Amino acid sequence: MSRSRSYAALGGAVSVGAGLAVAEFASGVAELGASPVLAAGEAVIALTPGGLSEAAIQLVGTADKPLLVLGTVLIALLVGAIAGVLALTRLGRGVALLAALGAVAAWAVIASEDGGVADTIPSVLGVCVAAAALSLLTRRVPHTDRVTSGGADRRRFLLLAGATAMGAAAVTLAGRALGEGRRVVEEARRTLRLPIKEPEVPTEVAVDVKGIGPWQTPNEDFYRIDTALGAPEVTPQDWRLRIHGLVEREIEIGYDELVDLGLENTWLTIACVSNPVGGPLIGNAWWSGVPIADLLARAGVAPEADAVLQTSVDGWTCGTPLRALTDQRGSLLAVAMNGEPLPVEHGFPVRMVVPGLYGYVSATKWLVDLEVTRFDRISAYWTEHGWGELGPIKTQSRIEVPAGGATVPAGRVGVGGVAWDQHVGIDRVEVRVDDGPWQDARLADVPNVDTWRQWAWTWDAEPGEHRLTVRATNAEGETQTSERQGVLPDGATGWHTVAVDVA
Ligand SMILES: Nc1nc2c(c(=O)[nH]1)N[C@H]1C(S)=C(S)[C@@H](COP(=O)(O)O)O[C@H]1N2
Ligand SMILES: [Mo]
């Protein structure tokens, strides 16, 4: 009994279509990783000899990208058709071909610019869906020689294949609709050219302790905290900021106008009030933006004002003491982070950063409104939820190496971490073993008082279980308190301690 190869090929193509639809949805909407289709298309561009790809672009003009995507999809469907025919004799062979297709996609994802292994999740998901559909459809491929029941078999197969194809189309359309805004914003971000100075990490800011985090936090590793489900989608073209309230002149400004005011660049460590002692919700970056003090001076602030209420495009609010925005500490309307336009998750196109204040009272992302006002007239998102109104960052220090619970060999052990008190600066870090005497750690350099400061200490470790504790003293001579307090209402206090096993 032979079964129809053309139906099998159709089933295979439909299976790949279903896999592609799910993969694109997973990447475009669920943001689980890179799009295999786009990555494969980019790989084709990268592998095509320059002259040839230029000739192709000349030929098809701006349709080059859609054509490339179409071509990639058609090739994938063709491979699916072959997998369908292979699956007819043995399902495993068809699945193996699909897996190979997925492997090519995953390779393209990893080979692409800033692609990692985690970005292959959509490709892997796509292969799983395609394989499941293939196994389902292959079993129902009609026989060619069953003249009598053939009609019913065929109808059932076509119904199933049709339903799968319709499902794939529905997922693709939904994905396109849902992912459209994000695509537009990513494209706008990619094509922006900002007059920013590239970050140059100053010398001597890093201590020589193996395993310690980088002094400059890369954007991909920067902590993210906000109340937004997906990141709001605002293009520079659509962005406008209104400055109003207790001012002499209201200001409305667009993105290009803002950038034309001139960008300042600075190293600054921002931190979240919800960071527990020793926690990860802190990062150090090179920020580029317009000084908020300049804009407020243009608007002319009324003498009775003492606060600035910020609103983001998604309606989140926060209140900042006016002084922190008008004194010379360098609060910025930031447009870039580590030398590139703000990542969408970190507030693209414009956010605030204020040295010395926790993010919940100062670091509004996707900023669209600044109201000069008074604290006794406003309430903001987190202060309504019981958090403190002012939110100055507290002096803190963290042990990064050795990690809590680690086992280290006896002898000389490198100990290190960071300490911070933005806008004030760190002058001293001390470490102690168990209940022993405090001992001075070596401090790395810092470019200003607004960044965290790495520290290192060499421990002559004796076998047994030990506790390492750290404490910092700021530039005003105040040592961080040992009193343990949780993050509510205005930031955790206490000394960071790690337990270490010396073998
Ligand atoms: N629009 C908006 N901005 C926001 C928040 C938010 O929820 N929505 N969270 C704030 C908090 S609590 C912190 S700690 C910082 C974190 O900035 P990051 O995600 O870039 O690290 O953003 C602040 N800006
Ligand atoms: Mo935060």
UniProtKB/TrEMBL annotation:
Pfam families: Big_7, Oxidored_molyb. GO terms for molecular function: heme binding; molybdopterin cofactor binding; sulfite oxidase activity. One of its GO terms (biological process) is sulfur compound metabolic process. The keyword Cell membrane does not apply. Residues 230-377 form the Oxidoreductase molybdopterin-binding domain. Keywords: Membrane, Transmembrane, Transmembrane helix. The chain crosses the membrane at residues 67-88, 95-111, 117-137, 157-179. PANTHER family: SULFITE OXIDASE, MITOCHONDRIAL (PTHR19372:SF7), SULFITE REDUCTASE (PTHR19372). This is DMSO/TMAO reductase YedYZ molybdopterin-dependent catalytic subunit. The lineage of its organism: Bacteria, Bacillati, Actinomycetota, Actinomycetes, Micrococcales.
